[in-house]
Amino acid sequence: MWQQIRSNRIRSVFLVIIMGVVLALLGYFLGLYFTGSGFGGLFIALMIWAIMSLIGYFQGDSILLATSRARKINPDDLPRLYNVVEEMKIASGLEKMPDIYIVDDPAMNAFATGRDPKKASVAVTSGLLQKLNRDELQGVIGHEMAHVRNRDVLLMALCAVLLGTIVVIAWYGSRFFIFGGMGRTRRSSSSGGSGGEAIIAIVAIVLMILAPIFAQLIYFALSRRREYLADASSALYTRYPEGLASALEKIAGSTEQLKSVNQATAPMYIINPFRKQGMSAQDLTSTHPPISKRIAVLRAMAGVSYEEYSKAYQQVLHIDKVFIPAGAAAAAGSVALRHAQPETAEKLDEVQRIRETTNALWNAQKYGIINCACGIKMRLPPGFKLTEVKCPHCGRINPV
Amino acid sequence: MTILIWVIIGIVVILLIAFVAIYNGLVRLRNQVKNAWAQIDVQLKRRHDLIPNLIEMVKGYMKYERETLEAITKARTLAQQATSAGPAERGKVEGELSSALNRLLAVAERYPDLKASQNFLSLQEELASTENKISFSRQFYNDAVMQYNNQTQMFPSNVVAGMAGFKPGEFFEVTVPEEKEVPKVSLT
Questions:
Q1: ipTM of this complex prediction, to 2 decimal places
Q2: pLDDT tops 60 at residue A142
Q3: 3-state secondary structure chain A
Q4: Residue A306 in contact with partner chain B when CB distance is under 8 A
């Protein structure tokens, strides 16, 4: 069942290696140009990369969660979300329940982090919780679980670090080139500058300009591929592609933009947080495939399997490229779709969902609750010092 | 002559390595099946534990539904007695329990007071989620069984499986009587 992930991973690793080669070339030629020693430059580039990788590997998830201002919640705060995550954990066969975080933001989005499936976290925005019904939420969580299960999180973090290193080196390289140019010219003229030096200079300049762009394109291509694979896995877990399709439709229709996000963390989200309204062109510079296409592929699925998804993908995008190798997909076999959740399971309307989500947010911020005898509920901030509080409705004095 | 001996030794070593690799692969798959089965077991137990709470809560509202309540209690007792049985036997009794539970939830629709109660709503969320977890763990289990069975039946791993006594796994299906009668509506 998981061979297709493996074969997809080989192609991903190939792209990562190309990115590594770009970094090595950049380091080598910059070193050759500035210090006359190519391997010195290579060594410095690899050192920077190694240090950034170590930080990313051990601290990446907490940095991401902190910069997106996510708050951890307990099972009792939000039973619906907790249950949906647990359902998807079971369906995907993960060994350990991931931590659940919620981001107080009206924009609809979700992301997963964690360097390996045993230490993963899933974060969703409060906007998403308020607007999606259970089936839709399941589809979104299934997509995030697929990222964890397929180890996309680790792969994308690795790539983000590589990309970051290339960008940083190219940036500092170009500064040195402009401001340190004078001293450099004098030294080269004293050694009787030759044609070889000029060629090295040109190669270094070209690399400084092109390497970041090239690396970014690879990063985006990699990210788009993983998105389609995660969609396919989500459909396989839930047996209900319509759930994710309808969730994506709702997300596409919302106009809110996520507040705390940056270029490097964008691929971790379920949809591109930087998207502009109405963007639909198959854009080379996007981390995510266009939503309309993802929805169309999901809706074109007749049964649930990687092969079905691959077929729907070719049909919708009109290309013959095989998304997942046929040999691997055939072994998995196709399974029938399930029906929508019956009405009885769909108890919460939007008002109830909003109330539930807001309560969970208050709890996560450790607000205390006081129930007044008149039926009013009062929330006290965590640093509340007074010993009693007056009810604004009936005027009773309540002890804290 | 010496070359021939070396060739034979080489072939034997390769066969031995292949045997060990295939054997380990089979063990890994069999453990995956066992692990998946344990997951189902956890969820079924969880459902058994939820039912007394449900009955306790519903009792006050449904004075005239004694039969429905007795049916569900009986189905639960039967299901609890079958906890050590194989997948096929268990699928049957759990199916009975599922249909009794569905009947109770359908009846509950007729009691607006009950439906409005916050406790009932949260219990219903728990029950619905447990049902989902059962079906998801069953899904994962059946996938694992299929993978394991394929491996025990396909050449060359079937030779190793036969020699080492790997028996094919059993699929788990919860057969709910009502579910089969649902007509499929096609809108196209």
A1: 0.74
A2: yes
A3: CCHHHHHHHHHHHHHHHHHHHHHHHHHHHHHHHHCCCHHHHHHHHHHHHHHHHHHHHHHHHHHHHHHCCEEECCCCCCHHHHHHHHHHHHHHCCCCCCEEEEECCCCCCEEEECCCCCCCEEEEEHHHHHHCCHHHHHHHHHHHHHHHHCCHHHHHHHHHHHHHHHHHHHHHHHHHHHHCHHHHHHHHHHCCCCHHHHHHHHHHHHHHHHHHHHHHHHHHHHHHHHHHHHHHHHHHHHCCHHHHHHHHHHHHHCCCCCCCCCHHHHHHECCCCCCCCCCCCCCCCCCCCCHHHHHHHHHCCCCECHHHHHHHHHHHHCCCCCCCCHHHHHHHCCECCCCCCCHHHCCCCHHHHHHHHHHHHHHHCCCEEEECCCCCEEEECCCCCCCEEECCCCCCEEEC
A4: no
